[in-house]
Write a structure and sequence with these properties.
CATH topology of chain A: GMP Synthetase, Chain A, domain 3
Number of strands of chain B: 4
Number of helices of chain A: 2
Largest interface: A-B, 12 and 14 residues
Radius of gyration of chain A: 11 Å
Shape of chain A: globular
Number of domains of chain A: 1
CATH class of chain A: Alpha Beta
Oligomer: heterodimer
CATH superfamily of chain A: BolA-like
Radius of gyration of chain B: 13 Å
Number of strands of chain A: 3
Low-confidence stretches of chain B: none
Helix content of chain A: 25-40%
CATH topology of chain B: Glutaredoxin
Strand content of chain A: 25-35%
CATH class of chain B: Alpha Beta
CATH architecture of chain A: 2-Layer Sandwich
Largest sheet of chain A: 3 strands, mixed
CATH superfamily of chain B: Glutaredoxin
Order of helices and strands of chain B: HEHEHEEHH
Distance between the termini of chain B: 39 Å
Strand order of the largest sheet of chain A: 1-2-3
CATH architecture of chain B: 3-Layer(aba) Sandwich
Chain lengths: 75, 110
């Protein structure tokens, strides 16, 4: 099952309310996305922790409904 | 995750200084993200072990739990989880990957 862009954005913003989220549907198939997430919550955290925060916001959808989400995090 | 799978993962990352859990093999990657990391390591001439998770369903799921990371590929250097495709790509581009290889005394093309 595919996810839509707005749904991904909503999940991320629920977990990181101050986040600026830019999402692109890379292939136009609802399956391959890229997200650039900017949040003050990333400050002082390693890249692995930052990406985990984004993955966690998607509540297990990553790797399941959501096949591919390229993530870039910025403080 | 069963003990056998856990031991398998532990053994791979203990026995191989640079270990990439990937879909497919270094010679025939089955996914673009796995191919991307594989290619970066090849360009840097790093000697690494590619572990094909597609050959073993319990490994494929187990490694996600082991690393607490939901996607594959996953790169380990000297038993430390370095990241998935996005992070490794970013580190490759900004030079951090070379720094890690250097700090961990892994041979690569400078």
């Amino acid at each position: 099952m595919a996810m839509d862009l707005k749904e991904i954005e909503k999940h991320i913003k629920e977990a990181l309310p101050d986040a600026k989220v830019e999402i692109q549907d890379l292939a136009g198939d609802g399956n391959h996305f890229s997200a650039t997430v900017t949040s003050s919550k990333f400050s002082g955290k390693s890249k692995i922790e930052q990406h985990k925060m984004v993955y966690n916001s998607l509540k297990g959808k990553m790797g399941n409904e959501l096949h591919a989400l390229a993530i870039k995090t910025k403080e | 995750m069963d003990q056998q799978t856990k031991d398998l993962i532990s053994n791979e990352i203990s026995n191989n200084e640079v270990c990439l859990f990937m879909k497919g093999t270094p010679d025939a990657p089955q996914c673009g993200f796995s191919m991307a990391i594989s290619n970066m390591l090849k360009i840097l001439e790093v000697d690494y072990k590619g572990v094909n998770v597609l050959e073993n369903q319990s490994l494929r799921e187990g490694v996600k739990e082991f690393s607490d990371w939901p996607t594959i590929p996953q790169l380990y250097i000297k038993k430390e989880f370095v990241g998935g495709c996005d992070i490794v790509k970013e580190m490759y581009e900004n030079g951090e990957l070379k720094k890690i290889l250097e700090n961990k005394e892994i041979k690569f093309k400078k």
